[in-house]
Specification:
alpha+beta; six-stranded mixed sheet; elongated; two-stranded antiparallel sheet; 7 helices
């Protein structure tokens, strides 16, 4: 009876207005939910950025005990590295367009290392050297996270495989470390700078850190002691010159 009375007194002309009010109320409700969600996301992003910046500052300023004289620890000279490179690698190339005589892996920036802008070398290595590079980056990341809770920071590779033309250009530019019989010819050798490190997640940055340099040195020392590589500490080029061993 009550329903009949309601239907009798409800003016059909009002129905569109009632529906409009209902739709508007639903719109306001969903708009508020969406606004609250966006605000929560914004606050979370701000908190993550603050935490990321704090971690980056920690990475820059943390001090650890200095253990070695790098130039004494890493002094595998060119003749030693060259013998290993010639045994493990391919024949020197005249230009990057030539096909190497052995299988190679093309390398690119990843979570374990950053490839710098290469002006006088090409990003490929024989598989054993490419695996060594990845293990350096992986061990570096593991050590940072395990000891300091720092994540997302990796070494920077500044030079990889060179051709004869690359070395000629380098020597003309005054690079005394660009040997005419360079280890970089053979796809076994790469340089990692110790002056800069790269943070590739969150607040992206390139920065200097004495602590990072020592962690990288520890990683290289362990791999060197395992017989996996030769390492030369280069002051003028601010890098570790690394050759994979056969």
């Amino acid at each position: 009876m009550a329903k009949r009375r309601l239907k009798r007194h409800l003016n059909p002309k009002l129905k569109p207005y009632l529906y409009g009010i209902l739709v508007f109320a639903l719109f306001c409700t969903f708009f508020k939910i969406g606004r609250d969600y966006r605000e929560a996301q914004r606050q979370e992003a701000i908190a993550l950025e603050k935490a990321d910046l704090a971690m980056l500052e920690k990475a820059k300023t943390t001090r650890i005990h200095y253990q070695w004289k790098y130039s004494r620890l890493f002094r595998d000279m060119n003749d030693v590295q060259l013998a290993a490179a010639q045994k493990l690698g391919f024949a020197p190339l005249s230009s990057p367009d030539e096909e190497p005589s052995k299988r190679v892996k093309h390398i690119a920036s990843c979570e374990f290392y950053k490839i710098d802008k290469l002006t006088h070398s090409s990003p490929f290595l024989v598989p054993k050297a490419a695996d060594l590079l990845e293990d350096i980056g992986r061990n570096f990341a593991d050590s940072l996270e395990r000891r300091f809770g720092i994540v997302g920071i990796c070494p920077i590779v500044t030079s990889v495989t060179r051709t004869r033309n690359d070395v000629k250009k380098l020597r003309r530019s005054g690079n005394v470390n660009a040997s005419e019989n360079s280890c970089h010819f053979y796809g076994t050798t790469f340089d990692i700078t110790y002056a800069r490190f790269y943070k590739h997640t969150g607040h992206t940055a390139t920065f200097e850190s004495a602590m990072m340099k020592q962690i990288l040195a520890e990683v290289l020392k362990n791999l060197k002691d395992e017989g996996r590589c030769y390492v030369k500490y280069e002051r003028k080029q601010a890098c570790f010159h690394i050759t994979a061993r056969p």
